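Project standup — Tuesday

K.O.: blocked on the structure for the chain from last sprint. Re-posting the sequence here as requested.
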Amino acid sequence: MSMFKEFRDFAMRGNVVDLAVGVIIGAAFGKIVSSLVANIIMPPLGLLIGGVDFKQFSWILKPADGAAPAVVMEYGVFLQTVFDFVIVAFAIFMAIKLMNRLYTKKEVEKPVAKPSAEETLLSEIRDLLKEQNGKAQ
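H.V.: unblocked you, prediction finished:
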């Protein structure tokens, strides 16, 4: 029973719960971005290059032969996945940049400390010695 208690304590610590929430939200955010890329960005981009759907871009490495299916390299799907990644990475970058801006504490300028009584006295003695040396020459 103690192993179960240890596991429960571990799982309920703040960091683990925060991480789990972050992963779940990240997965949902990834789906939103994938939909944005597939349904909003890629169709106009395909239209600009001649009305082609990126998912259709592929190279047939070996045609189908009887019962053996064709060997196809679908680089269009890969390109769409790369666009997904770039947009997700940019969105995360912007979110972190915003969070850093919100949480960055501006350094408060420290007031210049007044010299202590000893320092003031030593400065006066130094100045007097300079005056005396200047008059003696």
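K.O.: great, moving the ticket to review. The domain at 2-131 is CATH 1.10.1200.120 (Non-ribosomal Peptide Synthetase Peptidyl Carrier Protein; Chain A). The chain has one domain: 2-131.
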